[in-house]
Amino acid sequence: GQQVMQIPQYQHVQEGEDFTTYCNSSTTLSNIQWYKQRPGGHPVFLIQLVKSGEVKKQKRLTFQFGEAKKNSSLHITATQTTDVGTYFCATMDSSYKLIFGSGTRLLVRP
Amino acid sequence: EAGVTQSPTHLIKTRGQQATLRCSPISGHTSVYWYQQALGLGLQFLLWYDEGEERNRGNFPPRFSGRQFPNYSSELNVNALELEDSALYLCASSPLGYEQYFGPGTRLTVT
């Protein structure tokens, strides 16, 4: 079945530094979704990308979908302590099942 | 607009017992998904219900089952509980094919 691999598993940054998490698949993805889960919380939808080469921005967050639609990235500029949490990528397969990556846990030192 | 609600918040059971978890989707959403998130791990897809029918299930044994009611709320049942069933169980609702909205989860502890 479809799988998405996510790296790194953990990232510990100083507040103000940038952060990037990557999501990769061996097969072409029809879409990619990104979610954020705060410690002790539940996943919250951030964005969906569907087009090859698509780039979307939400304030300090930049989301990209690769040209071949096999990879995606989430980049946070100038991290803040409020960015702490685990970021998951996910893809919806043809049966409407959402397949999640393993997540990247972001820790921010104040 | 009210979000996805789940009950109970916490549930403590002993091995061999049965657990029932409940979920109410966002009004207007017909799809309900269930996920298991073991401590510190990712989300594993359990079950998907839409319009009252089970549409898909993940790689879990048959003792994980559920149903969806006419008002689109859903119930997850776990029979013959095992220690490794201890996890956060998340419910999500969605307009079919779009992003999913998660509830706060039920923390199940099996002792």
Strand content of chain B: over 45%
Radius of gyration of chain A: 13 Å
Query: What structural category do the secondary elements of chain B indicate?
Result: mainly beta
Question: How many strands of chain A?
Answer: 11
Helical residues, percent of chain A: under 10%
How many individual β-strands of chain B?
Answer: 11
Give the class of chain A from helix and strand content and strand pairing: mainly beta
Task: Please summarize the sheet with the most strands of chain A.
Answer: 6 strands, mixed
Our count of helices of chain A gives: 0
Explain what this protein looks like in three dimensions:
The complex is a heterodimer of chains A (about 110) and B (about 110). By secondary structure, chain A is mainly β. In chain A, about 0% of the residues lie in helices and about 55% in strands. In chain B, about 0% of the residues lie in helices and about 50% in strands. In chain B, β9 and β10 form a beta hairpin. In chain B, the strands form two sheets. In chain B, strands 2, 4, 5, 6, 9, 10 and 11 form a seven-stranded mixed sheet that branches. With about 110 residues, chain B is mainly beta. Chain B contains no helices and eleven strands. Chain B is globular, with a radius of gyration of 13 Å. Chains A and B meet through β5 and β10 of A and β5 and β10 of B.
Question: What's this entry about, in short?
Answer:
The complex is a heterodimer of chains A (110) and B (111). Chain A has no helices and 11 strands.
Chain-wise SSE layout:
The complex is a heterodimer of chains A (110) and B (111).
Chain A: E1 5-7, E2 10-14, E3 19-24, E4 32-37, E5 43-49, E6 55-58, E7 61-65, E8 71-76, E9 85-92, E10 98-100, E11 104-109
Parallel strand pairs in A: 2-11
Antiparallel strand pairs in A: 1-3, 3-8, 4-5, 4-9, 6-7, 7-8, 9-10, 9-11
Chain B: E1 5-7, E2 10-13, E3 19-24, E4 31-37, E5 44-50, E6 53-57, E7 64-68, E8 74-78, E9 87-94, E10 101-102, E11 106-110
Parallel strand pairs in B: 2-11
Antiparallel strand pairs in B: 1-3, 3-8, 4-5, 4-9, 5-6, 7-8, 9-10, 9-11
